[in-house]
Specification:
The protein has 357 residues and is an alpha+beta fold. Helix content is 36%, strand content 23%.
Length: 357
């Protein structure tokens, strides 16, 4: 073979190789193949090369099915790493216990068990639940209107922290107590305060949220009524139902409405600023823990004249928000809150935590 023909043959082989390789790269990035540009898949799963094949990481329990698009799930699998066989859209076939298994990456639990649980309760309640990692949300009687009671202390506190973070107020500002400030009901200030005693606004926020102190809240309310943006404008911009908010001190609330508030509280706490830590400390150390959990709970309760509520962020391995609103008498509902709390903890652990490994 002449030198010219040899060069041409080598060139042709290189061209064919590059073409085949390009087709391979194109194929594996298409739906139904194992990888994408970053390996990220539906449901937060991701795929990576391993031992001459591919492994898929499932970040949470996902539904196992006999066949794709057929019937109810027959079990849960994950979190963990599994050898991948094939993928078609959001369906993957993988090996589990040496057997091929179909898993749906976009799997979210059905709400039948939740609906049945509340249908069986002997008392009516309103619920907002959201798993913060997936956004999965369940609501029950979410538009039933209640007196907000002391839940409004939390929504007002978030507003004051917002002003402080933007330099519109200073939480080190001093308020000198006078007897016109005094309020009855819940709280601790009324048991020890003296005329002329001084409090910073940060201290008043701590009393208002941690101790649900009516005196501290009244002082803050009176101070911030003239601020811009106003409390109403602040929450209007965040999508709350303004027909429920008649005044800062006493307004009405629904589970859907306060679920929105708690999402903003969670977002603020996750910002990890000094103000966020200040609020989180108060909520983690509530003087009346009502929503219960085996994990840390940041919460704010409220009770007044037939309204008994609690709203919480539960720091489970997969954190969630839980809002429970009731018309129960304040001497009765602790067992109810415990029952509801433990039910949601088990539900959340089953579908969003599983056995980590």
């Amino acid at each position: 073979m002449s030198e010219k023909k040899l060069v041409f043959a080598v060139f042709a082989v290189v061209i064919v190789f590059l073409a085949v390789f390009a087709l391979f790269l194109y194929a594996i990035t298409q739906e139904g193949f194992f990888s994408s540009s970053d390996g990220q898949q539906a449901g937060g799963a991701y795929i990576y090369p391993s031992n001459g094949g591919y492994t898929i990481h499932l970040p949470r329990p996902l539904g196992v099915f006999a066949y794709p698009n057929e019937g109810e799930h027959i079990g849960l699998l994950g979190p963990g790493d599994f050898r991948l066989i094939e993928q078609t859209g959001s369906w993957v076939q993988l090996y589990h216990d040496d057997a091929p298994t179909w898993v749906y990456l976009d799997f979210l639990p059905k709400t039948d068990s939740l609906t049945d649980f509340f249908a069986a309760l002997p008392y009516p309640v309103s619920i907002f639940y959201m798993n913060m990692e997936t956004g999965f949300t369940f609501m029950h009687r979410e538009n039933f209107i209640y007196t907000s009671a002391s839940l409004n202390k939390l929504s007002h506190a978030l507003y004051v922290y917002y002003l402080a973070e933007r330099g519109l107020t200073e939480l080190g500002r001093i308020h000198t107590f006078n007897w016109a400030d005094l309020r009855g009901g819940t709280g601790v200030i009324r048991h020890f305060v003296q005329a002329g005693q001084q409090f910073t606004h940060a201290e008043l926020l701590r009393y208002s949220v941690l101790d649900s102190d009516n005196t501290a809240f009244a002082i803050l309310y009176n101070h911030y009524t003239a601020y811009a943006p106003s409390y109403a404008d602040f929450w209007r911009d965040r999508g709350r139902d303004m027909s429920l908010i008649g005044a800062q001190r006493a307004h009405r609330v629904t589970a859907a409405d306060f679920g929105l508030v708690m999402q903003y509280v969670h977002e603020f706490i996750e910002s990890d600023t000094p103000y966020a830590r200040h609020l989180q400390y108060s909520m983690l150390n509530s003087d009346v823990p009502i929503i219960m959990s085996d994990y840390h709970v940041a919460q704010k309760y409220g009770h007044w004249q037939g309204a008994f509520h609690d709203a919480a962020i539960v720091y489970a391995p997969s954190p969630y928000i839980l809002v429970v609103l009731t018309n129960l008498d304040q001497s009765a509902p602790f067992h109810a809150f415990h029952e509801i709390s433990m039910f949601f903890q088990e539900f959340n652990n089953t579908y969003f935590v599983g056995q980590r490994r």
